[in-house]
Structure formats: structure tokens, C-alpha cells
Amino acid sequence: MMQLIPLLFLPFSAFAADAGNPGDPGLAPNTMPAVSPEFDFDNVVEKGLREHLPLTSSTFKVWDNGMIPQDCKHHVESYGYRATDFEVVEVTYADCEKPWIMCRLKGSKTDNTRMAETFGRMPIGMRELVKHVMIMEFDKMKPAAAYSVADIIAISDEFYMHHIFTHELSHSLDSHIEVPGVTPPNSGGFSSTKAWKDMFDEDTAAISEYGRSGWPENLADSGVVALFDIVVPGGAGTINPNWTSCFHQYANYKTAYGHVVTPGVKLNCTKRVDDSPIVQAGDGKSNGNTTDEGGDSSDSDGNKGGCHNGTHARVGIPTRRISRPRPLAGIKAVHSGIFHNVTFVHRVQ
């Protein structure tokens, strides 16, 4: 049976915005080793999320009017693509009247149904904090498998997975969602507060090796385990014998965001972020038409607003190293944990 509300509520410290750079030596969550064995995000966790997150029904339309969201155009061109290399897909979910405009590289193995379904399994309280989803080639994005910035998520075709979405969307929660009594009113930034760090110190292991690299990544990987713990019968304890060593991290996440991420609690979008403007993809003239493919994902398996959306790439290899990507024009890369965080995880050769 799905756990509808988190059963554990951990006490929060009074608000203290400990806003130092989490990436500085001594301030990252690296004072203890990662849990051992590590959670198998790519296989066991992914399977649990795919099988137990409820699918929100959706329909999609493929645009053929030569138009594309401005932010999609900007990002894909920064990677050497032409905007016309991308299929623009309008996806409408049953829990939100406003559709999402997604940009999928033509020829991707992730088809439009899977693109809509995977995102559609994410709880609406997370999904509504995203402007656009993009799918690109890993060969173009590498060493990144995914990134998020300015309320946009780009994922490589090879790694279009539920647990990666959960990680990226956890950065969105960290950016946008107020934690009463902890973050300033109407503000996010939970990962940089004393309340988050104090609960980390209650554990004997970090949630993951990648979660030791910075406080936002610690929160985001904790979010993956937390969502698994909420939706999969038996929770995290069924997949890791040493779950108690990192328990306070994912329990703290559930206490802060359980009302947002637990399926069946938040039912409709109320904070849907605004899309970027629609512009011409190339030199062609707009004819104002869309092509309805009749896409329906209900039965298949399968800044502008200011945002600290950290980025993440989970590539199924236990040893990872972190570096800065080449900057995208017009996007300011600043310290991890502050707004516009851009961090890539390398595939180790």
C-alpha cells in the first residue's frame, strides 16, 4: 500500500541561513563516508520508482509550425545543434491545464510517449517547477548525463530515467519551496541551512558518494531515496541493509517536502512556472498549426524565475568526479548551492 504521508517528522532548527559556499573545503558534506553498500540508483531504485510512481495520464501534440521555446533554442544551439534538429512536443497532463512544451532531438530512442510518461510519473508538486524538458545526445552532453538550470531540465537520451528526474527536481524544490521556520518566507535554500546540516550530522554515512560533493547534491540524492521510501512498499530498508546510517538525511527531506512529493497529497498544479517565450526555430515562416499524434500515455509502461537548479548525471559507475561545464551564454555559473548552480558528473573511462 502506498504511504500517503511521511510517518516520521523530524524537528527543524529555527531558521539559520548558513549560506557559506557549500563547495568550500570543510563545508561540504564529506566528513563521513558514503553509505556502504551504496544505493543502486540505476537499477533497483529506478525499477522501484518506475513500478510504483503512479502514472498521470497525458496527451501530446507535435508542433509543425516552425516554432520552439526560446530557452530550448538557446540551450540546444549552445551545444552545437540547430533548433530545427528538435521536435517540439506539447504535453498536457490530467492534473494541470497548462501544458509543458518539451524539445526532443529527432531520432532519439526515447519516443514522445516515453518522454511524456517518465516526466508524468513525477509528482505534480515537483513537475510544476519545470519550464521545459529537453532530450539531447549523450555524445553532445558528455561528460554530463543531465543538467538543470533556470527551471529547465536537459537529459541525455541514454539516461532518461526516473531517478535522474527525481534528483533534478529535488534541486527545484530546494530552490523554490519554503520550509516553514527554516528558510525565509517564500524562499527555498533548505540545503544551505543549519537545519539540513544538523540532521546530516545525526547520521554516520552520507546518502551517496555524489551526495558528499556539496550540500545541494546531498539533498538531491536524499530526495531520490526519500521518494523511493514513500512509494515503494517496505521503503529504503528493503534495498540497503545499512539504511539506518543515512536515515536522517532522507527522513529530513520527507519532513520538509513530503506534502509536495507524496502522490495523492497534492493533486493539481498551483505553482506552475512560466514557460519561456515561443520563437522561430529557423528561417521558416510559422503556419500556426500543430499535428496531433493522438499520443496518450495513460496505458503504456514505460532565470527567469530564479532557481538554484543544480545539475546531476547518474551514469551507473561508482567512481565519479565533478567539474564545471563550458558556460552557456547568458547563464551565470556560481557556487554550488546558490542560484544557477551548474555541476556535471563525469563518466569515468
Describe the structure.
The protein has helices at 41-52, 70-78, 112-120, 124-127, 138-141, 162-176, 194-200, 215-231, 247-261, and strands at residues 58-63, 67-69, 86-93, 100-105, 132-136, 146-149, 152-156, 278-280, 290-296, 322-323, 344-345. With 349 residues, the protein is α+β, with helices and mostly antiparallel strands. The chain has one domain (41-345). The strands form 3 sheets. Strands 6-7-5-4-3-1-9 form a 7-stranded mixed sheet, with helices on both faces. A two-stranded antiparallel sheet has the order 2-8. The protein is globular.
Task: For this entry, give a set of tags.
seven-stranded mixed β-sheet; disordered C terminus; globular; about 350 residues; disordered N terminus; alpha+beta; two-stranded antiparallel sheet; single chain; 9 helices
- Uncertain spans, ≥5 residues at pLDDT below 50? 1-9, 11-26, 284-349
What average pLDDT do the residues reach?
80
Number of spatially distinct domains:
1
Give the strand content: 5-15%
Straight-line distance between termini:
41 Å
Spell out the helices and strands N to C: HEEHEEHHEHEEHHHHEEEE
Give the SSE map.
Elements: H1 41-52, E1 58-63, E2 67-69, H2 70-78, E3 86-93, E4 100-105, H3 112-120, H4 124-127, E5 132-136, H5 138-141, E6 146-149, E7 152-156, H6 162-176, H7 194-200, H8 215-231, H9 247-261, E8 278-280, E9 290-296, E10 322-323, E11 344-345
Parallel strand pairs: 4-5, 5-7
Antiparallel strand pairs: 1-3, 1-9, 2-8, 3-4, 6-7, 10-11
Helix pairs in contact: 1-8, 6-8, 8-9
